[in-house]
Specification:
The protein is mainly alpha-helical. Among the domains are: 3-109, no CATH class; 558-591 and 599-622, no CATH class. It is built from 28 helices and 2 strands. The protein has helices at 3-21, 30-51, 70-77, 81-109, 112-121, 143-151, 153-159, 209-224, 227-236, 241-253, 257-272, 296-312, 315-328, 341-347, 351-360, 365-368, 371-388, 393-405, 410-416, 423-426, 443-454, 461-480, 485-495, 502-510, 558-565, 578-589, 603-623, 632-660, and strands at residues 192-198, 202-207. The chain has a two-stranded antiparallel ribbon with strand order 1-2. Strand 1 and strand 2 form a beta hairpin. Helix 18 (393-405) crosses helix 22 (461-480). The longest helix is centred in the N-terminal third of the chain and has 29 residues, at 81-109. The chain is globular, with a radius of gyration of 37 Å. The termini are far apart. Residues 639-661 have a biased composition (Acidic residues). This is Transcription factor 25. Residues 1-42, 56-75, 627-661 are annotated as: Disordered. It comes from Biomphalaria pfeifferi. InterPro entries: TCF25/Rqc1.
Amino acid sequence: MSSRALRRLQGNSDLAKLENLSSDDKEGESESDTISKPKTRSVIKKTKVKHIELPENPFELLNEGDGDGTDTKEDVEANGENVETNSTQNISQTEDDIEASVLEVNRLLGDPGNSIQQADSGRGHFSLSLKPLLHIDYRHLNPETELKRIFGSQVVRGEHPRNRHQRNRQFHRSGRLVQPRNTWHSTSGSGLSMKYLGDIEGFVYEHSSVYQKVQQQFYDAVESGLPELIINILREHPYHVDTLIQMADLHRATEDFQTAAESIEKALFGMECAFHSLFNLAAGNCYLDYKRRENRSFYLCLFKHILNLGRRGCNRTAFEFCKVLLSLDTVNDPLDCMSMIDYFALRAEQYDHLLRLEQEVLITESMKHVPNFAMSIPLAHYHIARRDGGDIASADLLLQDSLLFFPMILVPLMDHCSVQLDKEVSGHSFFSTAELNDSTSELQRMITLYVKRCESCWKEAGVIAWLEANVKAVLEIVNKGQDPRPKEYALLRKKRFRRPPLSTVRHYFLSEIQGLGLPRQYLGSSLLNYDPFPPHDSIAAYSRPQRQTVASEDHSGVLRTLLCSLMPSYNPYEPANMRERQQLNANEGDEGENEGAVGGNTMSQQLEYSVQAVMQAMRQLLSLPFGPAQGQDVNNQEDQIELEENEREWEEDEDNFDNLR
């Protein structure tokens, strides 16, 4: 029903009330002619409305009290004070009912405003100030949109052939995070689902019984170190998330970045299809606890997808996905998304957004004084001033303060930008990099991370000139010795950056930046690509059953176990039935040894054969004496005679062939 029709009904109902109240009045008959027609029309409509049961929709009552036409307004003004009082009370009561109904509808539909109230009353993952900063625009989650804007629609469409006439194509539901491809399998029966645990606990992924069995097979395949077992799992279960993550890492190791990116996109699509009906990224109702093991795969896929988008040059899309990753847990930030969101904001020219994020999120001074934001915020101020034609004085002051806090960042940044510093600057002790050699400080890794990631943001000619001018200003401050900041900042650097949190260590491991090592205390720990550095208080919905290994079932004696351990293929942690499965897979894929098909063997068998051949050659080499062996001359003479006979036979065959021609 339109708003105009509602106003007519409401206005006529008011006229009907006026008619009943003014029936006893005996004022002049001159007004009776004017009101008679509206009265009759209103009475008819009122009787019709009585027989119609309108739905109790609160949005249909929002315009109550508005008139329709000048006649209605004149009649309303002619009423007494009782009518005004009753109508005011009815309107206020109706507005209260409307507000309650609207809040209830918003709660069910996942309205952003309602989600803010829920978050504030719960664990506060979205505040009123942070909500607009993390608002997700689904249009910017599609990299094809950004590529079309950069290169044009025709160029992007030319890279993707049309598949209108292909048969047996898979038709998928459209995705928000990833656009599915026609070659992908259907997600039905994947075994993934999502459960809502409440406002505080948020959401959690659930694995079906079939998915749990596949997960155990995946663990066995990873421990065995056999890639063919992982591939077999993916053939039977194309949307097993951890297997797709592992395969993406294998493709990336072989520099097949396109296939690696497709594996991550497929994993994201499978997890998106399992979203709960209340899971809403745009509304902020999307809290996923990283402590729960089943939720971590979604974090990892988003992180790797952001890196893949940045590798393709889709910086605006990558920035939007950074907001998605940060909105999952804004308090803990388990993958330290704040260490890279500034880079993609600069590359996507989202300078205003970066400044608002710095004002709302980086509240304390300790959070502000990190290398990436200390350098990126002044750069954003500089670009805004150049864009709007304003003054860069505020950007100068911010950059000078950042250089006073992190003077050791200047030399490596200029080296990566291929800029040679003045002798006065490079030879000054204040800009020395000796502090980066401290093994107990985390500053060296943080600066390396920022410089290698954000070097492209500083390579512009205007930016380099602006940086050099502020470096000279910093030198003047240091040489005068009146400013207390250099000494104060040096003490602060010694107190901070000692032990990095696990979120930062995960960021180091997942960033794929060369030369960025891990802290010493984490080098000895086992690393899993599908779950790097899990939380100490991790929560698992199900536990892994105890597996019988080769060492646990080996009761042949100590001596035989010792001899077996000398074999290169011996693995005491290998599951007991792993070799049977390997033999079964080898028999299925082997084309037959009699046909000479060496490629029919599995990779592990080929590796074992090559290792055994090398060991046999080493034994023969070690068994030979250092002098010439006895009978060596005789063997050489026999070999020479055999070669001469072979050459003679070859010449005879050639003559016979010429005669036949």
